[in-house]
Amino acid sequence: MIHFVGAGPGAPDLITLRGAELLQRAGMVVYAGSLVNPELLEMTPTGCEIYDSASMTLEQVLEKLAAGEKKGVTTVRLHTGDPSLYGAVREQMDGLKKLGIEFDVVPGVSSFCAAAAAARVEYTLPGVSQTVIITRMEGRTLVPEREKLSLLARHRASMALFLSSGLLKESCKALTDEDCYAPDTKAAIVYKASWPEEMVLRGTVGTIAAQAEAAGIKNTALLLVGDFLGDDYDLSKLYDASFSHAFREASK
Question: What is the model's pTM?
Answer without folding.
Answer: 0.92
